[in-house]
Write a structure and sequence with these properties.
The protein is of the alpha/beta class. It folds into two domains: about 160 residues, Aspartate/ornithine carbamoyltransferase (Rossmann fold, 3-Layer(aba) Sandwich), CATH 3.40.50.1370; about 160 residues, Aspartate/ornithine carbamoyltransferase (Rossmann fold, 3-Layer(aba) Sandwich). Helix content is about 45%, strand content about 15%. It is built from 14 helices and nine strands. It has a five-stranded parallel β-sheet with strand order 7-6-5-8-9. A four-stranded parallel β-sheet has the order 2-1-3-4, with helices on both faces. The chain is globular, with a radius of gyration of 20 Å.
Length: about 325
């Protein structure tokens, strides 16, 4: 009976064009614009008295291999505001790929819930979940991608400037998962993106080429710099993230030495446009990649970003699960 149920569910998923939110490269620019528009509508609705319970009776399983504040709370509260429920599943419950195989986890959860969100180390784990699940899978973060964060960032930039096309976004520091997804998102919205990073920590040539092709179709661009002071000239947005991500602790000394000149501080912000904003996906290591005076200063949009995680994720949940 179990195999019959799984077979039926797979067939239904295919017939209903079930989609996952794993990598922004899997989505067209038009699709991403629709998600952004929906997030704007849902945020306005929420501020006007609350969201309609469009996900009533639906549940989201949230798999966590990494600690979380904003990812967990934004998804959990977002589901509540849409009338659904969310269940956190920590590493001690599953041991993804160790205690239990990833396909077995995906197939089992698909029998209980209508969506799966996973915050993992290895990107392959999210792909494996999506390949075996019969419900939508959302990448809450992996070592190579952070698509939900990038879409929340697009919402924040749009709110600040009233547009995305032609906005100059400069990412300063380690070209990590956050930076890559941010560049991908920007390319889909016509953003002029630049990364300022040491050669060891910048994007690959393949990634630059792929992003440049998407950006060209939407009127945007991508550039790479080694010198942050040159990169931030005329910037509308300066963005940074931690120099040492979870799982990279053994590289701390090397990374901090190479990335110290890439700190976002008052001097760097002064070199940007007069109305430039500063963004950081948090958690911030204050005094390292960003100073207190910048993080808490007049240019900071950091906590607007944090709030927008919930609103963009509600749009993703509705798009995939309704």
């Amino acid at each position: 009976m179990l195999m019959e149920s799984l077979s039926s569910a797979l067939t239904n998923a295919a017939e209903n064009n079930m989609r996952h939110f794993i990598d922004l490269a899997d989505w067209s620019s038009e699709d991403l614009r629709q998600i952004l528009d929906l997030a704007i509508e849902l945020k306005q609705e929420w501020r006007s008295g609350g969201n309609k319970p469009v996900l009533k009776g639906k549940a989201l399983a949230m798999i966590f291999q990494k600690p979380s504040l904003r990812t967990r709370v934004s998804f959990e509260i977002g589901m509540q505001q849409l009338g659904g429920t969310a269940l956190m599943i920590g590493p001690q419950e599953i041991g993804l790929g160790k205690r239990e195989s990833v396909p077995d986890v995906a197939r089992s959860l698909s029998l209980f819930v209508q969506g799966i969100m996973a915050r993992v180390f290895e990107h392959t784990h999210v792909i494996e979940l999506a390949n075996s699940a019969t419900v939508p899978v959302i990448n809450g973060l992996s070592d190579s991608q952070h698509p939900c964060q990038a879409m929340a960032d697009m919402l924040t930039i749009y709110e600040r400037f009233g547009r995305l096309d032609g906005v100059r976004v400069v990412y300063v520091g380690d070209g990590n998962n956050v930076a890559l997804s941010l560049a991908q998102a920007g390319a889909n919205f016509g953003v002029n993106f630049a990364i300022a990073a040491p050669p060891q920590y910048t994007f690959s040539e393949e990634a630059m080429t792929e992003i440049a092709e998407i950006a060209a179709r939407n009127g945007g661009s991508i550039e790479a710099y080694e010198t942050p002071s040159l990169a931030v000239k005329d910037a509308d947005v300066i963005y940074t993230d931690t120099w040492v991500s979870m799982g990279q602790e053994s590289e701390t000394a090397e990374r901090e030495a190479l990335l110290r000149p890439y700190q976002v501080n008052d001097d760097l912000v002064r070199r940007a446009g007069e109305n430039a904003i500063v963004m950081h996906c948090l958690p911030a290591h204050r005094g390292h990649e960003i100073t207190n005076s910048v993080a808490d200063g007049a240019h900071s949009a950091i906590f607007q970003q944090a709030e927008n995680r919930m609103h963009i994720q509600k749009a993703i949940l509705v798009t995939l699960m309704r």
